[in-house]
């Protein structure tokens, strides 16, 4: 086979292998959505407890592995919501930071309480 034909042939082989691997993967689930930071923290706590209980067993059955697979979706949703919330808080805190450097009291008075209220939900639950 000519070298110029090897590359496309290899690409086709890789694509076929990847498609077969996707067919072998388990069904995907949506998991519970976390609409608020409070829900996200509740889901994180509850589903971490479920995961912890399952992995404490000596041997993980196929059923337990499926259960882990299913609950991981809710955990991923919760972490994504927490990440979004933390990013927003970081932006608000940065406004407070810059305003404090610039002696902008009005912005500090407006944004510091917003930051405090938002960040409080991360550690009071």
What does this structure look like?
The chain is mainly α. It has one domain. It is built from four helices and no strands. It is elongated and about 60 Å long. Mean pLDDT is 84; it is low at 1-6 and 8-14.
Tally the beta strands: 0
Order of helices and strands: HHHH
Helix content: over 70%
Enumerate the spans where pLDDT stays under 50 for 5 or more consecutive residues.
1-6, 8-14
Rounded mean pLDDT is 84
Tally of individual helices: 4
Alpha-beta content class:
mainly alpha
Query: What is the radius of gyration?
Result: 24 Å
Cα separation of the termini: 65 Å
- Label the overall shape: elongated
Work out the strand percent. under 5%
How many domains? 1
What characterizes the major β-sheet? none
Write the layout of secondary structure elements.
Layout: H1 3-24, H2 37-55, H3 62-101, H4 105-123
Give a short overview:
The protein has 125 residues and is an all-alpha fold. It is 80% helix and 0% strand.
Task: Give short descriptive properties of this protein.
mainly alpha; 125 residues; elongated; 0% strand; disordered N terminus
């Amino acid at each position: 086979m000519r070298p110029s034909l090897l590359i496309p042939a290899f690409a086709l082989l890789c694509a076929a292998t990847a498609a077969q691997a996707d067919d072998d993967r388990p069904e995907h689930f949506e998991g519970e959505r976390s609409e608020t930071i409070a829900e996200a923290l509740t889901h994180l706590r509850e589903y971490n407890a479920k995961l912890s209980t399952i992995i404490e067993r000596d041997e993980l059955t196929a059923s337990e592995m499926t259960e882990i697979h299913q609950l991981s979706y809710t955990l991923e949703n919760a972490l994504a919501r927490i990440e979004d919330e933390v990013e927003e808080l970081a932006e608000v805190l940065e406004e407070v930071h810059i305003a404090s450097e610039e002696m902008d009291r009005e912005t500090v008075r407006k944004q510091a309480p917003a930051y405090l209220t938002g960040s409080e939900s991360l550690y009071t639950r």
